Amino acid sequence: MARAHRMTSLATLRGRGQLLVLYAHVVGVLACAAVLTGSPDLVPITVFILPLFFASHYLGPKHLPWYVVFLLGIMLVCVAQRQRSDLRTAIGVVVVFALAFLVLRSSFRRSRLGVSGPRGESMLVDLRDRILSQGMLPPLPAEWYAETALRSAGGTPFAGDFVVASRPGNGRRLELVVVDVSGKGEDAGTRSLLLSGAFSGLLNALPPREFLPAANDYLIRQDWDEGFATAIHLSLDLCTGDFELRAAGHPPAVQLVAGAGRWVVHPSEGGTVLGVLEDAEFPAVTGTMRRGDALLLYTDGLVENRSRDIALGIDRLQGQGERLLRTSMDDGARRLIDKLGSRNDDRALLLVHRR
């Protein structure tokens, strides 16, 4: 349904773009007609701004420079044939030329992509939707509840934190990965787009113990200047509640042990960050989730900032979890992430609860 809606929106956008480009050409033709009929004074200079604006949005970089040159030529012919010229006309010409320069500069920039503005934006929107779809949680048995919450630095739709989920095989196991790519916000968005697709494929194709080593090898092969990432991988048996946690330089998971009424931190056992060392090892931490238990996986933006150590942040996470999740786990990830972390850093939180 969502895919069909996106395709409909793109088709509508292209249709509107064609109409606007047609309008721009009509204005240019009318200007030509005014010149040819000997009535250039009827064409105000500002009329050339509209086709210039529409063409900059809906013409590709291959055709846009020629159209701008054509439009400026028509404008100069109109000005040359005017019976009188004043300061207002001169200022209008300067403004149109300045806007044309900006449009051409933007066009040369977009020539690397090869598409017009709205189409390029629609491609980015589609990529953003794809990264979010990688983290969509699969359907779970009635006794299990899981929820993710993501917040990006500055409120942009692109972030360096993402979640990958899978329920491979016969559906007995649930595989979840929380990743924090180096950088934040839009700067890390392109890398997270690439890694989310790659990690999703690896998660579905490999057994749990091989996922982080394969992800580490993949990142090393990219040879990025700022190419490291941290991750934590949860492999959960949905029948018994047994789980394995493997971390790569990531903050430790926090578990609510309902029987004891306390929160327990599962320490990360020495896994290095992804993309730094070849043949790195990622030992597993094991545990069991019983009825009433909950498990929190998160990124460092939720518990760490410049003025607070990560250990204090984890203590605060436990305190907020005790207060906010005491009565209900439903919508718990959203409630926790809105209370914790820095608004200047990407944040991701994954909540898993056994009812």
TrEMBL record:
Entry EC no(s): 3.1.3.16
Species, as recorded: Nocardioides jiangxiensis
Protein name: PP2C family protein-serine/threonine phosphatase
Record domain PPM-type phosphatase: where: 143-354
Segments passing through the bilayer: 20-36, 66-83, 89-108
PROSITE patterns found in the cross-reference section: PROKAR_LIPOPROTEIN
Keywords: Hydrolase, Membrane, Transmembrane, Transmembrane helix
Source species, domain of life: Bacteria
Keyword Flavoprotein: no
InterPro entries given in the database record: Bact_Sigma-Reg, PPM-type-like_dom_sf, PPM-type_phosphatase-like_dom
Single Gene Ontology MF annotation: protein serine/threonine phosphatase activity
Keyword Glycosyltransferase (UniProt): no
Lineage: Bacteria, Bacillati, Actinomycetota, Actinomycetes, Propionibacteriales
SMART domains recorded: PP2C_SIG
